[in-house]
Design a protein that fits this description.
By secondary structure, the protein is α+β, with helices and mostly antiparallel strands. About 20% of the residues lie in helices and about 15% in strands. It has 7 helices and 12 strands. The protein has helices spanning about 30-40, 60-65, 90-95, 185-200, 205-210, 265-280, 320-335; strands at about 45, 80, 105, 110, 115, 215-220, 235-240, 250-255, 285-295, 300-305, 310, 315. Strands 1, 6, 7, 8, 9, 10, 11 and 12 form an 8-stranded mixed beta sheet that branches. A two-stranded antiparallel sheet has the order 2-3. The protein has a two-stranded antiparallel sheet with strand order 4-5. Helix 6 links the parallel strand 8 (about 250-255) and strand 9 (about 285-295). Helix 4 (about 185-200) crosses helix 7 (about 320-335). It is globular and about 60 Å long.
Length: about 350
């Protein structure tokens, strides 16, 4: 299990030679499924929920994220310009019908107890219908929302800064652009939250992320596998600080399912596989953190894999416990290397 209290950072600053064990080469998914099932048999623990589930993180997360001491804003304080909410369903169209695109709006609806972002409830939902005209994404991991937050030397990036080049197509190119992947709505949602936090507390990027390279969520490999000579696997969402997603550059992974979570279900196997591939390409890591969003994509779990097994946290509903979700999210995106293993 992850060490309690202070622990060394092993993500970016060199390798621990004692951790360079050999892992068998795997060339197909069924073999990878059998290998991870064998290796993790009876070694996946599920934590109990804290007694005060409204405010506390699980015991494991409180230890791993102990180095993150930055005071976060309450979710009700997060605001973004309306044009940042580039996915809008009927509820949001009605809610913001008279609001200018550059006006600040709340990112969380206190009355409705849900985020002002249209998250699907099923993989059959046609999320491309919610994407506003002219806001198409290339789906290559350079999601427009939140890209500029904290990416420069300025402590307080402008709210009206234009999207990075290549993240929005010219009008004459939009007809030939494929729709963004289903997972893109989640990646853009995550990055908009990142943007809102960085705008509310501009110092958080420089104060907590010692690498000075912003971590961003990407859905760029949701539709095509990460480059690897062994086995083809597609992470739904990947946390990156590098342009190209590779198993030796991905910091964390989030897998999505509309079904209830089970360790023996498809999503459980996918998480096991991604952890194996991350450890194989980053053997110096002390642990790997993956997230799952299940049960209509509203229940968040953190899955911690280390060299002796795995621990799964109790579920957190991102709508009814938004501040708990915000805490976990911030530790992953803004936290020091200790938070990532």
């Amino acid at each position: 299990m992850a060490p309690a209290g202070a622990h060394s950072k092993t993500v970016d600053y060199g390798m621990k030679l004692s951790s360079l064990m050999s892992a068998p080469m795997v060339n197909d998914v069924p073999t990878l499924d059998r290998l991870t099932a064998l290796e993790l048999n009876r070694l996946i623990l599920h934590e109990l929920a804290p007694q005060n589930d409204n405010t506390e993180l699980s015991y494991m997360l409180s230890q791993i994220f102990g180095s993150f001491t930055f005071r976060l804003p309450d979710v009700t304080e997060l605001q973004v310009p309306l044009h940042k909410i580039c996915y809008q369903d009927d509820r949001l169209h009605s809610k913001f019908a008279t609001t200018g695109k550059n006006e600040l709006v709340d990112l969380y609806d206190v009355d409705q107890h849900q985020w002002n972002w249209p998250l699907p409830k099923s993989h059959r939902d046609k999320v491309e219908r919610w994407l506003l005209p002219g806001d198409g994404s290339l789906g290559d991991g350079e999601e427009r929302a939140g890209m500029e937050a904290g990416s420069g030397d300025d402590d307080s990036p402008s709210l009206e800064e234009e999207p990075a080049s290549g993240s929005q197509l010219a009008d004459d190119d939009t007809l030939d652009t494929p729709p963004p992947p289903f997972e893109g709505v989640f990646a853009m949602f995550f990055n908009v939250i990142r943007f809102a936090i960085a705008q509310k507390v501009p110092k958080i990027v420089q104060a907590t992320n010692v690498t000075q390279v912003p971590h961003m969520w990407s859905a760029g490999n949701a539709t095509h596998p990460v480059k690897d000579e062994e086995v083809a696997r597609k992470p739904d969402l990947a946390l990156l600080d590098d342009v190209e997603a590779r198993w030796d550059t991905i910091k964390a992974v989030c897998e999505l399912t509309s079904q209830p979570y089970s360790a023996t279900s498809t999503i459980g196997k996918m998480l096991d596989n991604k952890a194996y591939l991350l450890f194989r390409r980053q053997p110096w890591r002390q642990f790997i953190l993956l997230m799952s969003m299940s049960k209509k994509y509203r229940e968040l779990r953190v899955h911690m894999y280390d060299h002796s097994g795995a621990v799964v946290t109790p579920p957190i509903n991102i709508n009814t416990h938004p501040n708990n979700y915000l805490h976990i999210f911030s530790c992953l995106v803004f936290g020091k290397l200790e938070c990532l293993g």
